[in-house]
Write a structure and sequence with these properties.
single chain; about 350 residues; alpha/beta; Rossmann fold; 8-stranded mixed sheet; two-stranded antiparallel ribbon; about 45% helix; globular; binds adenosine-5'-triphosphate; binds magnesium ion
Length: about 350
């Protein structure tokens, strides 16, 4: 994935921080002489580098941005935006958080679409994958990692991961397997590590294990299950089952509720179906409680970014609105709510 940090524009930082553009420019004047913090052209700020974005948002109370985080994309229905959200949230995170903190993408789907989009290829047959790790065949997590950007890493998948569920036959493994991997990745990379997981579109043991891992994150860390909702009745049903099942598995091991957010993917206000289904979601007693304040709009830029095997940010002139949606969704998933940001 071409995951160079594409510096934030002043208008973008103004929007996500809820502070006016002139105030952002004023606040950044203090760092204008440090070339490693800003991109300048003729004395004007044209780009704000990730470390400066994080520093700016932390100073305004968005402390969750610097925390270790696990975000798991999961739902029972296929083709609803798990993989595209995973990659674009990672790219948004690379623009908004310090490059000293690692971003790790985990492909837990044997279809390997995340691996293909992020690195151009699925894992080779001899390459260690999640299955090898679960089977105890990998000495260090470092052996699982492929670098795909500036401190952006990927655990690739291939069709052999179709045997993951068989390898995870014991219920105890659902409780421990993914949590152990997450802990080892955080130990390996250090503070501020962000892990994003793409799961298969079914009720898999590996998916459940990562959901349990969100609940096993420490108090000063973030763990979120993100459920994309496709805008049709079947998609709504899939999301409802995903949330109910996730709640059940977390409850079975920890006696608590799952920390989940569902979000509408592919929203188009011009179509009756989008509006009707969104209204059904807000009336759905399970989904409404978990509904994110952000929807990802329908955008042809998603297909274009898949074709060029990158994120929506790499052709940014076409991606302003959809990129903004992913940045907002990331902040929601990390618990940096809009209300706090605009205080
Ligand atoms: N917001 C969107 N606007 C337009 N097209 C979208 C959007 N989100 C996803 N798509 C398209 O929908 C298709 C499925 O998306 P994606 O692969 O992310 O779903 P998925 O849930 O990972 O699918 P699977 O269940 O097969 O793993 C892709 O071809 C993508 O281009
Ligand atoms: Mg997918």
């Amino acid at each position: 994935m071409d995951c160079r940090p594409i510096a934030l524009r002043v208008t973008e930082l103004a929007r996500i921080s809820g502070i006016g553009k002139p105030a952002v420019s004023m606040a950044l004047k203090g760092v204008a002489n440090a070339p490693e913090k800003l991109e300048l052209a003729g004395g004007k700020i044209v780009g704000i580098l990730p470390e400066t974005v994080q520093e700016f948002l932390l100073a305004r109370g968005q402390s969750n941005l610097a925390k270790n985080s696990l975000i798991v994309l999961s739902t029972q229905t296929g083709g609803c935006g798990k993989t595209s959200s995973c990659i674009n949230l990672a790219a948004a995170a690379r623009r908004m958080t310090s490059r000293q903190s690692a971003i790790v993408l985990i492909d837990a789907d044997s279809q390997a679409s995340l691996s293909l989009q992020a690195s151009g290829t699925a894992a080779g047959d001899d390459e260690p994958i999640l299955l090898s790790w679960i089977e105890g065949k990998v000495k260090s997590v470092a052996d699982l990692l492929t670098q795909v950007g500036e401190n952006v890493w990927l655990i690739r998948s291939n069709l052999n991961n179709a045997f993951l569920d068989r390898a995870m036959g014991r219920p105890q493994l659902i409780k421990t397997a993914a949590t152990k991997l997450v802990r080892e990745l955080i130990d390996h990379f250090g503070a501020g590590t962000k892990i994003l997981v793409d799961t298969p579109p079914q009720l898999s043991s590996i998916g459940q294990s990562f959901i349990v891992a969100t609940a096993a994150m420490n108090q000063d860390e973030v763990g979120t299950l993100l459920v994309p909702i496709r805008l049709d009745d079947f998609g709504v049903k899939g999301a409802q089952i995903a949330i109910s099942e996730a709640n059940e598995v977390v409850n079975a091991f920890f006696n608590t509720s799952v920390k989940a957010l569902c979000f509408v993917n592919g929203f188009d206000q011009r179509t009756k179906n989008s509006v009707r289904t969104l209204s059904a979601i807000t009336r759905n007693p399970v989904l409404n409680d978990f509904l994110a304040p952000v929807a990802i709009r329908h955008s042809s830029e998603i297909a274009r970014s898949i074709a060029r095997r990158s994120s929506v940010f790499t052709d940014y002139k076409n991606a302003t609105t959809i990129g903004a949606d992913y940045m907002d969704l990331l902040l929601s998933a990390l618990g940096c709510e809009r209300d706090e940001r605009t205080e």
